[in-house]
Structure formats: C-alpha cells, structure tokens
C-alpha cells in the first residue's frame, strides 16, 4: 500500500476503531483528523465550535485533511468531512475512499453507549442520538459519492477490516 486510505461515514460508524485495526493489519500509519485537531489546537471539537462556530471547525477540518495526507497511512476522517465538495474531490484524487455504512439505529446505540460529548457536540441542537437519523439521511448521498468502496459496518471490527482488505485486493487485481 502506498496511497492513503480514507475512512468516511457518520458519527459512530467506526472510522476510528476500524482505522486503528486496519492500519495494524496493513502495517502502516494511522491518523485521525479529529485527533489531529485535538492535539494541534489543544481544543476539543466542542471548544472549537464554541469559539469559531461550525464554519470555523469545517475550515480547520479541511486543513487537517491536507496536513495528514501521506503515503502508507490509514486516515479516519470526521463524520462531516464529506460536506465540502473540495474534500470529497481531494480524497478521491489522493487515495482510496472507504464508506463504512451502518443504519441510524445502530449508530444511535453506539453513540448512546459512548457519547464523547466533547468530540461530538450536537449538530442541530437536538440530542445526538435523535439527530443522527436526519443527519445520516442528509449525508448518505455524499458518503456514497465520495466512496470507492462501501462496506457494511454493522459487523464486528475484525470482520470489517477483513471486508476492507478484500475490497482493496479485488480492486488491485482488476
Ligand atoms: N463495528 C463495531 N461494532 C461495535 N461497536 C463499534 C464498532 N465500531 C465502533 N464501535 C464503537 O462505537 C463507538 C464509536 O466508534 P468510533 O469512535 O470508531 O466511530 P467514528 O466513526 O470514529 O465516530 P466519529 O465520527 O464521531 O469520530 C466506539 O465506542 C466504538 O467502540
Ligand atoms: O458528523 C460530524 O459532523 C462530526 C463528526 C465528528 O467526527 C467530529 O468531526 C465532529 O464532531 C463533527
Ligand atoms: Mg472517529
């Protein structure tokens, strides 16, 4: 592997969890744009949004995407990375984009168990487990448009990693 692999999908689909395991399986680096922003700004997503609004966060997130892009790297993106057309285009041009797809009901149950509110402040003013249905409906087309491969992310992380590796191998062979 030399091209970066970008994992996209809604909050709770497992981009960070699967990304760590996928990087381990491939023996390559792992970075996460949310974590990159946390360490480079020393502010949580909630802090950035409180100070700069969502527009400020989205600008920083687009910058983070460019900063972390490197060969031999699995990149877990933030759930809203696909909102900017320029980000979707950048990811498709610079690497392989994988959409980890899961229905809102499953996302809600994971987010309820592990809310991490500092990193996942409400997007709409409603509780995140309520808003996820509408957020996913509004973004589903963007995740699909960005993706080279769509992977069922309702399974355990080890199975998702296997499915991603199989998709990458199949694409390489063809
Ligand atoms: N395949 C899975 N099966 C069961 N639980 C999972 C799975 N993937 C992730 N989880 C759990 O769901 C929670 C959210 O996962 P994770 O943080 O990886 O999602 P994310 O896509 O990175 O979300 P965000 O967009 O907010 O960064 C975590 O607590 C994780 O343990
Ligand atoms: O879905 C979203 O818009 C977000 C997801 C998280 O990964 C963070 O990037 C942030 O909380 C925004
Ligand atoms: Mg994450």
TrEMBL record:
Cofactor requirements of the protein: Mg(2+)
Positions annotated to bind Mg(2+): 16, 32
Region (LID domain): 112-126
Cofactor note: Binds 1 Mg(2+) ion per subunit.
Entry keywords, A to Z: Amino-acid biosynthesis, Aromatic amino acid biosynthesis, ATP-binding, Cytoplasm, Kinase, Magnesium, Metal-binding, Nucleotide-binding, Transferase
UniProt-listed GO biological process terms: amino acid biosynthetic process; aromatic amino acid family biosynthetic process; chorismate biosynthetic process
Enzyme Commission code(s) on record: 2.7.1.71
Subcellular location: Cytoplasm
Residue sites binding ATP per the record: 12-17, 120
Binding-site positions, substrate: 34, 58, 79, 139
Gene Ontology molecular function: ATP binding; magnesium ion binding; shikimate kinase activity
Reactions performed catalytically: shikimate + ATP = 3-phosphoshikimate + ADP + H(+)
Cellular compartments per GO CC: cytosol
Family the entry assigns: Belongs to the shikimate kinase family. AroL subfamily.
Protein role: Catalyzes the specific phosphorylation of the 3-hydroxyl group of shikimic acid using ATP as a cosubstrate.
Domain notes: The LID domain closes over the active site upon ATP binding.
HAMAP family linked to this entry: Shikimate_kinase, Shikimate_kinase_2
Subunit structure: Monomer.
Name of the protein in question: Shikimate kinase 2
Organism: Buttiauxella noackiae ATCC 51607
Lineage: Bacteria, Pseudomonadati, Pseudomonadota, Gammaproteobacteria, Enterobacterales
Gene coding for it: aroL
